[in-house]
Structure formats: structure tokens, C-alpha cells
């Protein structure tokens, strides 16, 4: 049995902070939401680590938007739906591609310096986009540049209180209505309550559930797990995007080598030096990510090596250094001069398409609870995200969440505050050895990787279910809470992957290798309920 809360607590005994809006997460989604809420009331914006530690900071390639004369929203819409392999919500995609360019102009007004040649914004091409539509900044430091401008702006707002080092443990709810969160202050080493009628989860992804990931250490899927414990619906968790090209060196984190590198002419080669992608797809090196990742997986299996190579040596050396300064420098730090040497690369977990089921305004099935960015599933990315659409997702839907949350608060139709004493966890101190995060990562990497099959998924689910027992102990540090969230997410992801008896987008089942029309639907999971299916449109 999954507990409702990870921690025993008594609201009467805890320090309380109150605000009109509570936003959790300081990546693009949380920052945009907070910025847009600032005109409507007092906003508290939290992050569990230092502010910069988030997926947004590490985004390299860029942000997709229709700004070129020869481009159209219809074309961006079509590319997104195609990549999503039948599971995108067309209404959400329509909003994304039509509102995107306006939001980009606002970013420029805020001071984001997208790379230009003269006055002209430079655009690059990435896989499965039918034209050049990716804006980038600082060469390959797009996320950092956007985040920097947004943080500066948010910090200058009197109405926003920005706090780092605050870990959201659980949502406080009563009768499916949110009242705030139970949090842990890492500096003060104390639990406290943040009370608010509106809680926005912008807590990012969950790449840390795998050994090999491009995501930083904060990406432990907390938002999805805590929302699920509170009764929120979660969906599409079987769809994990593995980025085809991350640096593969022993003892080195899987640093991302952006797809834009292939967009600018980089090519993949196997151990024999052959350009193998031409054998797998007509778009060769710029085929959709799931196809490139599986092709690399296959080539690695055949050769027995743990990597293939990315070759950019045909590109002009000065261009490489200017266009990809971070990638160039990082590889050089590891002894690889990419203008002369092949880069050893392998796929790694990169983006979670699924998340907290949210409508076109980020509303969830819990009153007052909103979600946006990577932690949410609004249906934009379907079974496979189109490159550079996720920064745009946070930008567009962060604003929409703020608009709807303002309306919600103004309606003023709330029950009174919450008073709650929760004691369900066992306080037995000796529970044996607590499993490490590595154990969950190992389980997911071995049994829920790029290629899946029933027997392994069943074994994986059984082990994840065993690990769920650790959620019933009163553990009390951030590492343990993250572990408990990872276990929850592993359990849910195995369920989704086992149910979905087909191959679609990023979900590839060796035992069901083709797309099944009957599976053109989403798997929605909710605590204490069996799973249900839903038609293609969420709203
Ligand atoms: C290496 C890399 C490169 C990428 N490149 C691109 C790209 O070029 N283009 C593109 O569109 N996308 C790219 N992506 C994906 C994109 O960066 C993310 O999907 C997007 O930035 C997610 O934004 P977010 O605001 O939802 O979450 P994040 O930016 O991850 O922010 C999550 C926030 O939530 C906080 N948080 C989490 N849990 C808790 C908790 N329990 N309590 C308190 N706070 C919590 C974290 O501290 C953090 O502040 C890339 C991702 C990576 C990792």
C-alpha cells in the first residue's frame, strides 16, 4: 500500500508560510509562471537545490518557434504530430505552435540574446523539423541564457519570494482540493508548511531514474510522485525519450551532444567507420530521435562496443568553436578535439513525455493544483517529443497556467484551511539496509531501456513493487525522499510499459514490434484505482 504522505507530521506544530500562489521549480516553466503571476498576488517560488540546478540550465540546442518567413504554424504543428506518433493532443499542439512566436518575442523583450547574424536571428535545423526553426543563444547555451534573463526579471518583482534549498515533500490536500505543501528546509533542517490556494508543480523531469542520463541530479520525478500520492492522475509514463548522442566515456557523466550538431552536418559512424543511419531511415542522421537511438543500440549490440561515433571533422573548425563552444570545451577537457577526433557517443535517458495529466490550462484533477513543463503531460509531445519543443512547452504553458490560476484565485470558491495530523509510517528505526538510488537506476536501465519485452518488464515490476515497501517508513532526508519518489515512478513506468502491448514512438516492445491502432490512447494511472484508458484527446 502506498502511503498518502512520506512523512508523519502535525500541521499545528509546524512553521507556516502563506502566499496567494505557490510555484515549485525554477526552470523555464516555473519562472515563466511566477513572472506572469506576479501582477496578480504574492508568489512564493521554490527550488530544492540552488536555482540554476535544473534541466533548463543545461538545454543546449535551442527553442523551436515559427519565426522564419518560409515557415508556418501548420508546418510546425505537422512535424510535432508526426514525431508524437499518434498520441499528441492536437489542441495542445495547436496552442504551442500558434502562441510560441509571441512568447519568444516577449523573451527577446526581457533581454534574451538569441544568436544573430547582423539583425537576423539565426535558426538551426534539428531532427524531424521540416525547416530551420530553432533559435539558439550563446551558441549551445540556450537554456542558460533564457534562465538567466528570466531569473533576473523574477528577482526584480516585489511580489515574488524566491527560495532555494526547499524540498517539496508532499501536497497538502483535503477532499481533492490543494492547500499547500509539506516542505523540508535543507538549510534550517526543519519541516514547514507553505500554504496556498494555488500550487503549481513545475518540478521537471526524471532522467535520474536511469544510470545513463543527460539530466542533472535534481531530475528525480518528485512532482509526479507526490502528485500521484495525493490522487492526481498521471499518464504516458512509458514514454521516455533516449537522446541518441551523449558523450560515452568511462567514469564521465553522459554529457549531451546536441542534435543541432547533426543539424549542422555531423554524422554518425559505427566501429567500422560506416555511416550506418542511411540504412535505417531516409532522413539518415536527422531521423526522429527514437529511430536514431534504436539504430545506435543495434549497432552497439552488433559490435559489442558501448558507443558509436559522431563525426564533425568535416565542419570548419572555427565554426565548431563558435557554434558549439560548450560542447567543444567539454570534449576537449576529456581529451577529444572534436574538430579532429570522432566523439564516442551512446544514447541516454533525456526527456519524459509523460507526467501529471493536465488540461490546456495546466489544471489537474485536484482543485487548485496546476502543472506545467516537463513534469506535466498536456499532450504536446505524444509518444516522442520533437526536438526543441520542450523549452517552448514551458514558455507557452507556464503563461497559460498563470492566466488560469489567476482566474481561479479570483473566483474565491475555497474551503477553509487545512488542519491535519498524519501518522501512518512505521517509526521502526531498523528497517535493514535502505536500497540505493543505484538499485532503482539499475533496474530501470536493465529492464525498461530502449528495447523492452514482457518477461523483463514483469520482473522489473515485481522488483519495483517490492521496493515500494520502503515508502512506508518514516525516512527523513532529501536523498531518501528522492529515492522513494524514484521507486514510485519506477513502479508506475513498469506498469505503463507492460500494459502497452505495441511499439510506438519511444516505447519499443520487441514482443510487439508494430504500432497497433487499438492502442492510440493513453494509459492513465491514479492511486487506489485500476488503470483506465482514454481517447486521443485529453480535453
Ligand atoms: C542536457 C539537456 C539538454 C536539453 N536541450 C534542450 C533543447 O535544446 N531544447 C529544448 O527544448 N529542450 C531541451 N532539453 C529539455 C528541456 O531542457 C527541459 O525539458 C525543460 O528545461 C524542463 O523545464 P522545466 O521548467 O519543466 O524543469 P526544470 O528546468 O528541470 O526545472 C525543475 C525545477 O524543479 C525543482 N524541483 C524538482 N523537484 C523539486 C522538489 N521536490 N521540491 C522543490 N523543487 C523541486 C528543481 O530544483 C528545478 O528548479 C534539454 C534537457 C537536457 C537535460
UniProtKB/TrEMBL annotation:
Pathway(s) served: Cofactor biosynthesis; NAD(+) biosynthesis; iminoaspartate from L-aspartate (oxidase route): step 1/1
Catalysed reactions listed for this entry: L-aspartate + O2 = iminosuccinate + H2O2
Domain Fumarate reductase/succinate dehydrogenase flavoprotein-like C-terminal: 439-537
SUPFAM superfamilies: FAD/NAD(P)-binding domain, Succinate dehydrogenase/fumarate reductase flavoprotein C-terminal domain, Succinate dehydrogenase/fumarate reductase flavoprotein, catalytic domain
Record bears the keyword Hydrolase: no
Co-factor requirement: FAD
Residue spans crossing the bilayer: 21-38
Compartments it resides in: Cytoplasm
Chief location: cytoplasm
NCBIfam families on file: nadB
Protein name stated in the entry: L-aspartate oxidase
